[in-house]
Design goal:
This protein is α+β, with helices and mostly antiparallel strands and about 200 residues long. The protein folds into two domains: about 80 residues, 3-Layer(aba) Sandwich (Glutaredoxin); about 100 residues, Glutathione S-transferase Yfyf (Class Pi), Chain A, domain 2 (Up-down Bundle). It has eight helices and four strands, in the order βαβαββαααααα. A four-stranded mixed beta sheet has the order 2-1-3-4, with helices on one face. The longest helix is centred in the middle third of the chain and has 25 residues. The model has no long low-confidence stretch (mean pLDDT about 95). The structure holds glutathione. The site of glutathione has 12 residues, from loops.
């Protein structure tokens, strides 16, 4: 099995952290690039999006959620499925909100790498405000036990979203949000998170 990733994609990072959390070292990482018109990956992955998991029979799928669910099922017990019981919907809500932050900052990060004349100040401002509102909401909740346990999908999405700061210096979620700063530092030091940093030179 092969997981197609790029060094900069926060979605790929999430899949790589989950791979290590599940001990699935046998899934080979393939460092690739997106937006390459004649990329051979486009033959089996027509969307060209990563992460993409290619199975040994040549089939496979894109999408972080699907890939994480597949890896989770490969190596039971399930770690990333929403819990049953009273935390089910609060968990789904945290996950949806963290994914929303990630989707927004990914749009923002894409916007700033466009040629300057093609950038939309309106989109950048819209995403900046969305990210600030969401970061405030996470700061308010980060002291709850939900953010102290082992990494789950809400925390994975939140970490990978905040980590986009490495590509997006204007995404200042740290100022005035000490709880998020402390939480991010704790997660960043976890072996699966450190171990999923791209090696130099890819
Ligand atoms: N919904 C997808 C989003 C993945 C995504 O947007 N990947 C970006 C990299 S961060 C990509 O592959 N972009 C290439 C392109 O747009 O052609 C997921 O959850 O995996």
């Amino acid at each position: 099995m092969r997981l197609y990733v790029t060094p900069t994609s926060p979605y790929a990072r999430l899949a790589m952290i989950a791979r290590l959390e599940k001990g699935l070292d046998e899934i080979e990482l393939v460092w690739t690039r997106t937006r390459v018109p004649d990329d051979p990956m486009l033959v089996f992955n027509p969307s060209g999006r990563i992460p993409y998991l290619r199975l040994d029979d040549g089939t496979g799928f894109e999408d972080t959620d699907v890939i994480v669910d597949y890896m989770d099922a490969l190596a039971p017990p399930l770690r990333f499925a929403p819990p049953e019981g009273e935390d089910r919907w609060p968990h789904r809500a945290r996950r949806a909100m963290a994914r929303s932050l990630l989707d927004g900052v990914a749009v923002w990060a894409r916007e700033i790498v466009r040629p300057e004349t093609e950038r939309s100040p309106g989109i950048i401002e819209h995403e900046r405000r969305r990210a600030a509102r969401l970061a405030d909401r996470f700061e308010a909740g980060i002291g709850s036990p939900a953010y102290r346990g082992p990494l789950d999908m809400p925390q994975l999405f939140l970490f990978c979203a905040l980590d986009v700061e490495r590509r997006l210096p204007d995404f200042d979620w740290r100022t005035g949000r000490p709880g998020l700063v402390a939480w991010h530092a704790r997660v960043a030091a976890m072996p699966s998170v450190e171990g999923s940093l791209p090696p130099a030179g890819v």
